[in-house]
Design the sequence.
């Protein structure tokens, strides 16, 4: 009787031991306690992802509708010619705005940078206090990162082909010579752009630390002029796909 | 008896780590609750042995039904969105401590009884001397 008891207890303990070991291997100390906050965070993430998906689906739908309307327009029945032209005109307008060939207007920020006015330390390099081409480039880059839709420096529109480079005490932008102070205007989400620049790690803050004058102003109404000269493309040609002309 | 428990657990752990038994991670919580119930029955068995009231059938049936009930409670709680497994945690966890306390008291009592017996023997010997 006693022996049977021993074996029974032994067998059940063995089962528990196996269970414990498996549990340790499978859970590995994770997935045991998920705090409600974590669950909530995941819920929010999932919801935002779902919204993103619906937005993308809408975009797809719009594109398909556009395509369908184009196809309808291209069928030569003469009546839809006008609609086709309207569509084309709207597209041209959009691309002109994007490429800097149109004067645009909207809310945004104005950044002003200027050479520093503080006294130099003994033996300090004067370059520490001057605005360089790199500073302008970094600020343009930061603005673009924060969703700027149009940027201009001292009235010169920044486009895809813009160059900013140093030429002595001045800076050449798109081949035009500009001197300090530099006024950089950007249309977009002003609060976001300004916040990025004056952030403790932002570029504006580091300029101030060097002693360069730096200022950001939010503006409700900024007008950015079109590009002063049009690009003439001499080397670039559209890739002709086979079967299309 | 204690040896049987310890050796059984050791062999079980070795087997569990040695053999490659794996199950989906979703079930791990139910298994945990079942194990808690099982540990409670083992400590309960040890206590009843100390009290000379051990019964094999009660032990095995309690072991199985407690583990199953804990798992079912956890599962139902998951489905209802109510943390019912707290019930299992409080009951079995509390019982674990209770049983351990009783075990400790019994062990200490026995120890003192043994000491007294020894002292009694010594006293008798002294009288004879």
Sequence:
């Amino acid at each position: 009787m006693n022996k049977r008891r021993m074996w029974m207890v032994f067998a059940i303990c063995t089962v528990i031991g196996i269970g414990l070991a498996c549990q340790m291997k499978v859970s590995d100390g994770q997935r045991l306690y998920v705090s409600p906050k974590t669950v909530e965070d995941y819920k929010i993430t999932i919801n935002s992802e779902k919204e993103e998906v619906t937005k993308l689906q809408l975009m797809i739908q719009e594109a398909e509708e556009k395509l369908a309307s184009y196809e309808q327009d291209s069928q030569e029945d003469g009546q839809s010619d006008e609609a086709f032209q309207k569509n084309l005109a709207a597209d041209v307008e959009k691309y002109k705005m994007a490429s800097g060939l149109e004067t645009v207007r909207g809310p945004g920020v104005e950044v002003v940078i200027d050479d520093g006015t503080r006294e130099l330390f003994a033996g300090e390099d004067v370059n520490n206090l001057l605005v360089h081409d790199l500073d302008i480039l970094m600020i343009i880059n930061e603005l673009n990162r924060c969703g700027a839709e149009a940027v201009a420096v001292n009235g010169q529109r920044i486009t895809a082909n813009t160059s900013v480079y140093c030429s002595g005490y001045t800076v050449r932008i798109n081949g035009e010579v500009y001197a300090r102070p530099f006024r950089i205007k950007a249309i977009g989400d002003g609060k976001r752009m300004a916040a990025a620049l004056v952030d403790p790690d932002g570029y504006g803050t580091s300029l101030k630390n060097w002693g360069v004058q730096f200022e950001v102003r939010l503006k409700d109404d900024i007008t950015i002029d079109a590009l002063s000269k049009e690009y003439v493309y001499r080397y670039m040609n559209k890739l002709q796909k086979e079967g299309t002309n | 008896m204690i040896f049987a428990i310890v050796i059984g657990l050791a062999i079980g752990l070795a087997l569990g780590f040695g053999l490659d038994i794996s199950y989906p991670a979703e079930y791990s919580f139910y298994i945990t609750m079942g194990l808690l119930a099982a540990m409670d029955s083992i400590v309960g068995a040890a206590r009843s042995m100390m009290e000379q009231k051990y019964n094999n059938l009660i032990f095995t049936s309690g072991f199985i039904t407690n583990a199953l009930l804990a798992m079912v409670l956890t599962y139902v709680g998951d489905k209802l969105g109510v943390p019912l497994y707290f019930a299992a945690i409080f009951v079995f966890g509390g019982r674990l401590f209770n049983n351990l306390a009783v075990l400790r008291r019994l062990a200490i009592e026995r120890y003192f009884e043994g000491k007294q017996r020894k002292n009694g023997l010594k006293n008798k010997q002294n009288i004879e001397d």
The helical segments of chain B are 2-18, 28-50, 56-80, 85-128. The CA atoms of residues 2 and 46 of chain B lie 7 Å apart.
